[in-house]
Amino acid sequence: MQNRFWTFLLIALVLAGLVSIGLFSGRFVVYLSMRVMILAIFAMGYNILLGRTGLLSFGHAAFYAGGAYGLGLFSIHVSTDPLLGILMGVLLACALALIVGFFCVRHTEIYFAMLTLAFGMMVFSLIWNMRELTGGDDGLVGIMREPISLGFISISLLKTSHYYFFVLFWFVVSVWIIHLIRSSPFGLVLSGLRENDRRVEFSGLSVKNYRLASFVISGTFAGLAGALGALLENNTDPFSAHWSHSAEPILVSLIGGIQTFTGPIVGSVIFIVLREIIERFTQNWMLWFGIILLVIIMGLRGGVVGGITQLFKGGRHTSPSGGKP
Amino acid sequence: MLESIVHVCLAGLSAGMFIWLVASGLTLIFGVLGVLNFAHGSFYMLGAYFCYTLLRFTGENFWLGLLLGPLCVCVVGFIVERFFLRYVYHLALPYQLLLTFAFVLLFDDLVKVVWGAGSIGSPMVPGLSGSVSIMGRNFPTYNLFIIAVGPLVALGMWALLEKTWWGRIIRAASSDREMASAIGVRVPALFTAVFIFGTWLGAMGGGLAVPYVGLLTPGMGETVIINAFVVAVIGGLGSLKGAFLGALIIGLLSSFGTRYIPAFDMFLTFILMAAVLLWRPQGFFGEAT
User: Fold this and answer.
1) So what's the pLDDT on residue A38?
2) Nearest of A172, A178, A184 to residue A12 by alpha carbon
3) What domains sit in chain B, N to C, each tagged with a CATH number?
4) Which tens digits make up the pLDDT trace of A57-91?
5) B116 phi and psi, to 5 degrees?
6) For residue A78, what are the contacts with CB-CB under 8 A and spacing of at least 6?
7) Minimal Cα–Cα distance from B156 to chain A, Å?
8) Please, what is the average pLDDT of chain A?
9) Does A99 touch chain B (CB under 8 A)?
10) Domain count, chain A
11) Are the C-beta atoms of residues A84 and A150 closer than 8 Å to each other?
12) Tell me, what's the pLDDT at B289?
């Protein structure tokens, strides 16, 4: 009971903090917070696949781009309604993930990583080459944030602080859904796949279908992040489908801790804030991230959240940090 | 028509041999150490940059640069394996891949710091800078030279692995690590040696690429590593035979693609990879799991 109380208090504090950022902070902080939340949606969805199911994908940027381009194309050619646009983006990402996942989940480990990489780059090269449709290397520009109309009221999203609450809404919804997934029987089966897929198979469950479901769910959240990102920046970028962008959710999850629920969120905050700080002083933020990544892999494999949890539990408890059994 | 096909074939062969030079080291390292090395593209890039710099220092002597440049990169490879990679062999796959990925980030930016973020034009090789006439059209001599080097490297590696004592030890350690160490092979040292040799192959590829690509850019390793991955995967991970065949196919495919359907040349490679993996998940010569 005690524990539950603290958890609720923490959630309430974080929510209050997020709302007050939207109400009282300057444009820059609001903008950064939106980027953190969008990255967190991307990374949390991704971590269903990596942390839960134990599959390493190097192609999720393709679904992010799927969301971004789905929304962008829909808003340019059909309708500028942001809710419909997001729906389209998410559906496109979901469909892409279903197709790619169908081919990829037959494999695990290294073949899975390479296959997702190849399919991701396939999407990238399609976006790059289909100039008439996707704008090639220019991307889609001029995606407008039109007001949302809910029957009789309409909410403007044009101002950054207004759009902030829109992103916050999706962030809270995503966290909630992902929490539900994690604590459901379905989520337990995914953990089972990570620990021992043979046993899952012997208990009569289809390993392939569960992997595919996990893949599609994570791809869908990537699409949501992509659609929100496209609305935030008012454009899309073909490099959002590039494999180096796929590394971002992996990095973020790893920094925060892949075996923890809040890891990807904490990781996103650290990633965006650190990057902002490093870029103040030097052009070479990748160099510093390389070093941070090395430190985490060599010494802090539970991530920041995992490390802190361990500290509180008295240190003796061995962390389930992905060592081979 | 015919001469154009011949020329597209030749261009494809030379492109394929370049991919092979990079994929050979990647495949060897995977086959023995079981680690897929993202940083291999960085070794290629470093090889190119080191060769370029040494070429400037040694008074435009390409061959001396090609001899010394990759050796410098070998030192980098030694540091990566001995002080970092060695400690993650027992960990799950994501950690191994991400460790090598961390080095990609690191080296990409280091190159920017040392050599500048812009691209550098590279000089031609004396003696090989001209072109020869094949069926009435000019073809660069240097590319013919590369078409010859590729099979020589393949032959050399085959001889090393199949015909020498060292090759037997390497094969033993790759098929059963524990057994090899039980009969007295110093497996960790052997792994370091193999990693350095693989690094050297990648850096050689980079050094040889200096006159071929003409431009040195800080991100040049990334495109190459993706192609090398594709080749290694369709050939069967860890199979040198497969990597050679895969490199030939990808080289020819991309060359024909660029010539006849330029809008989708990148796309073709990945379509082929997906098709091969559907038909034979373990690649041409990979062992079924």
Assistant:
1) 92
2) A172
3) 2-114+140-279 (1.10.3470)
4) 888 999 999 999 999 888 888 877 888 888 999 99
5) 95, 155
6) none
7) 28
8) 82
9) no
10) 1
11) no
12) 53
Question: Tokens 């690509």 sit at which residue?
Answer: B213
pTM of the shown model: 0.82
Q: Do A111 and B97 touch (CB under 8 A)?
A: no
Tokens (6 digits) for B61: 């002597």
Maximum Cα–Cα distance across chain A: 59
**3-state percent breakdown (helix, strand, coil) of chain A, nearest 5:** 75, 5, 20
Minimal-distance CA residue of chain B relative to A300: B95
DSSP A124-143: HHHHHH-HHHH-GGG--B--
Residue for token pair 């920046």? A233
Distance of CA A143 to the CA centre of its chain: 21
Give the domain extent around A75. 27-242
Is A2 an 8 Å CB contact of chain B? no
For residue B281, give the nearest of A107, A109, A293 by CB distance.
A107
Q: Are strands B131-134 and A148-150 parallel, antiparallel or unpaired?
A: unpaired
Query: pLDDT digit string (tens) for A209-263?
Result: 888 999 999 999 999 999 998 888 888 888 888 888 888 888 888 888 877 888 8
Helix (H, G, I), strand (E, B) or coil at B217: coil
ipTM, 2 dp: 0.78
Show residues of chain B in contact with A128, CB under 8 Å. 266
pLDDT computed for residue B200 by the predictor: 92
Q: Within a domain: residue A261?
A: no
Nearest by CB to B281, from A111, A243, A322: name it. Answer: A111
A323 touches chain B (CB under 8 A): yes
Nearest residue on chain A to B80, judged by CA atoms? A294
The verdict on a CB contact (< 8 Å) between A322 and B94 is yes
Instruction: Tell me the nearest-neighbour CA distance from B80 into chain A, angstroms.
Output: 11
The answer to whether A291 faces chain B, any CB pair under 8 Å, is yes
Domain-located, residue A302: no
Find chain B residues with C-beta within 8 A of A287's C-beta: 105-106, 109-110, 113
Measure CB to CB from residue B84 to each of A289, A298, A322 and give the nearest one: A298
**CB-nearest partner of B102 from A258, A284, A297:** A297
Cα separation, A157 vs A88, whole angstroms: 18
What is each CA distance from B151 to B20, B23, B25, in whole angstroms?
Answer: 9, 13, 14
What's the helix, strand, coil split of chain B in %, to 5? 75, 5, 20
* A154 membership: H or E segment, kind and range: strand A153-155
Domain contains A219? yes
Residue A134 is assigned to a structural domain of this protein = yes
> Is A62 near chain B, with CB under 8 Å?
no
Measured between CB atoms, does B109 come within 8 Å of chain A? yes
A110/B237 CB distance under 8 A: yes
With CB atoms and an 8 Å threshold, state whether B90 touches A244. Answer: no
Please compute the mean of the pLDDT values over residues A280-301 and round it to a whole number: 81
